[in-house]
């Protein structure tokens, strides 16, 4: 319709320059043309959905010309016109045994292998370590970001992730020395320094019978660890050590 009005207006505009058309007829057609042009610009501004990021369309839920209803129509239970997936950076959710919890850190580099590319490793990086342990299988999840600049990978592919867990010195203590904060996963113990009890937050590792590995920058070999009566201690109180 706009193109037809544009053709008619240009023809009439040429005639108007020679005085061959009534001014009223010219004004009416020009008004119609201006209104149609304004409507088209409005539709362009309000019917185009710019993507918030570069990606690929993974789902289309409406056909051209179909009325948008706003009813939930995706697996996530939300209303959408299109589903857009960002694939230049993919995320792998990796379950790990709880014994590795003290060793996996944000920013750690990993190697990722995909079954469809068995001879080509991809680089990954730990972006987030989930703070809780699944009580059913004693595992925690780590989120690994995988670079996919060449676009070879796709969401849903099976991946194997290798972590380079460097050897770390641990102190082996009687498990009774380690206490747990009620309602959280925080572990701590008390060590004696110059007759004063000092509370030290620790991470725990493997268990060996009645002993357990503990990790803390505040501990060193030779520290005097309180293993009896520590549940009633407060940080900074004076203690008398009996051997």
TrEMBL record:
The CusB-like beta-barrel domain, residue ranges: 97-164
UniProt cross-references to SUPFAM superfamilies, sorted A to Z: HlyD-like secretion proteins
Domain of life: Bacteria
Gene3D superfamilies per the UniProt record, alphabetical: 2.40.30.170, 2.40.420.20, Helix hairpin bin
Domain YknX-like C-terminal permuted SH3-like span(s) in chain numbering: 171-241
A GO MF label: efflux transmembrane transporter activity
Gene Ontology CC: one annotated term: efflux pump complex
Database matches in Pfam families: Beta-barrel_RND_2, YknX_C
Similarity remark: Belongs to the membrane fusion protein (MFP) (TC 8.A.1) family.
This protein's name: Efflux RND transporter periplasmic adaptor subunit
């Amino acid at each position: 319709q706009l193109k037809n009005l544009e053709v008619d207006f240009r023809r009439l505009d040429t005639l108007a320059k020679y005085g061959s058309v009534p001014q009223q007829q010219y004004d009416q057609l020009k008004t119609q043309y201006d209104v149609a042009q304004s409507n088209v610009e409005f539709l362009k501004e309000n019917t185009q959905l710019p993507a918030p990021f570069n990606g690929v369309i993974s789902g289309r839920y409406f056909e051209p010309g179909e009325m948008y209803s706003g009813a939930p129509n995706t697996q996530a239970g939300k209303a959408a016109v299109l589903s857009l997936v960002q694939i230049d950076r993919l995320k792998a959710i990796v379950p790990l045994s709880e014994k590795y919890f003290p060793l996996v850190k944000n920013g750690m580099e990993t190697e990722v292998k995909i079954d469809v590319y068995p001879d080509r490793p991809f680089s990954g990086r730990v972006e987030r370590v989930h703070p809780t342990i699944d009580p059913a299988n004693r595992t925690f999840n780590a989120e690994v970001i995988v670079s996919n600049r060449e676009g070879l990978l796709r969401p849903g592919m099976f991946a194997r992730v290798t972590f380079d867990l460097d050897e770390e010195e641990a102190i082996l203590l009687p498990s009774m020395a380690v206490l747990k904060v009620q309602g959280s996963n925080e572990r701590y113990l008390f060590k004696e320094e110059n007759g004063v009890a000092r509370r030290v937050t620790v991470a725990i590792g493997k268990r060996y019978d009645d002993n357990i590995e503990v990790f803390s920058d505040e501990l060193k070999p030779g520290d005097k660890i309180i293993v009896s009566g520590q549940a009633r201690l407060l940080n900074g109180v004076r203690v008398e050590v009996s051997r």
